[in-house]
Design goal:
Blueprint lengths: L3 H21 L7 H10 L3 H9 L3 H16 L4 H26 L5 H13 L12 H17 L4 H14 L4 H8 L1
Helix pairs in contact: 1-5, 1-6, 5-6, 5-7, 7-8
Length: 180
Amino acid sequence: MIKRYSLLYFCLTFFFILIPLNLFGINDFWDGVSVSYAFESKKNLALDEFMIQGGFFFQFIIYKFVFSISDYIDISYKYFINLSYAVILFLLAIELRKFSKTILKLDNFYSTLSGIILLLFPVWHILVSSIFISHILFVLFVFLSVRIFFSNSIFLKVFALIILIISFELKSNFLFSIIL
């Protein structure tokens, strides 16, 4: 059974994130230009060197995965990135709702409102570069790991710590996770 808030989050994600990104976010900017060049020219050596020497190991794996999937389904990696942004933000809204309800002990209305505010927050226009895919994914990992850490199972606590450590590749998540 689909929950009401999931349907609401899906509609908000579709109309306020996915459609605008595909209408206005076709070109890549900043570091994403290197990624775009590597994908279009099939010359991954420069990207490999940039990511590995920069210490972006999980971002490197994410890009390899994105390249493989977009090649397999034969669409531009940028469209696939935009779809990934929408899916990750949708999951982040659901996770924020769960986090607000279980950890912060907010009631249903305010928990759902936290996801709505996240999806409608006027910052998603910065997603014009594919380089931000890992940033948003790692923020999702932080919320997920903090919520899972408060479970009773030692296995889940260890799993949560592994996810949290992976999210530290984005250096600002270290401070962010301490604040949570």
